[in-house]
Design a protein that fits this description.
alpha+beta; Glutaredoxin; 5 helices; 24% helix; globular
Length: 190
């Protein structure tokens, strides 16, 4: 059976992505109404959610039974979806205590995402933008691998459907949730 090695470990020589400005337009943007299929079994429209919502976007979670695309580890910002998801799992209670809901978002289909959510014991839903409806409407940064368009890794903090803060690029991915906790903490103390 092919494998991708330890999906939770990050290679020591992982290339760091640079800020190409592709997310500069996002803060202050009102999300359009685009219902997304969820691993929870329904549809989620991020534009209608009240309060604080954290949406971490990732290119593609690997699976232990499948190889990653050739050269995946050499693409800046590609590797690390599993460690990023695990960081949000491990900080989920902290984020809930700060009043935030959490969702992961990728272009992978819901069945593929459901496998990852179950395997990684994620206490939050993953959303599928498989047809790139939200990505195109908002102008999320993307890249292409083997003919497939994927979302670049970023994290958005939403307030009542408005993008308030964007973390981009996200590196290292396994520290993503901690940085969000640190950013939200002073707001919660007010």
């Amino acid at each position: 059976m092919p494998g991708t090695g330890n999906l939770q470990a990050l290679p020591a020589d992982l290339p760091e992505p640079t800020d190409d400005g592709a997310a500069d337009h996002l803060p202050g943007t009102r999300l359009p109404s685009v219902p997304l299929t969820s691993t929870g079994g329904g549809l989620v429209d991020l534009s209608t959610l009240p309060g604080t919502t954290v949406v971490y976007c990732y290119p593609m979670t690997g699976r232990p039974d499948r190889e990653l695309p050739p050269g995946w580890d050499e693409i800046p910002g590609a590797r690390g979806c599993t460690p990023q998801s695990c960081s949000f799992r491990d900080h989920h209670q902290d984020l809930r205590e700060l009043g935030a809901n959490v969702f992961g978002l990728s272009t992978q289909g819901t069945a593929y995402q459901r496998e990852a959510a179950e395997r990684l014991h994620l206490p939050f839903e993953l959303l599928s933008d498989e047809d790139l409806a939200l990505s195109k409407e908002v102008g999320l940064p993307t890249f292409e691998v083997e003919g497939v368009l994927l979302i670049k890794r970023l994290t958005m903090i939403l307030e009542d459907g408005w993008i308030e803060k964007v973390f981009y690029p996200v590196f290292p991915p396994n520290e993503s949730a901690q940085r969000v906790v640190e950013w939200l903490s002073p707001r919660a103390a007010e």
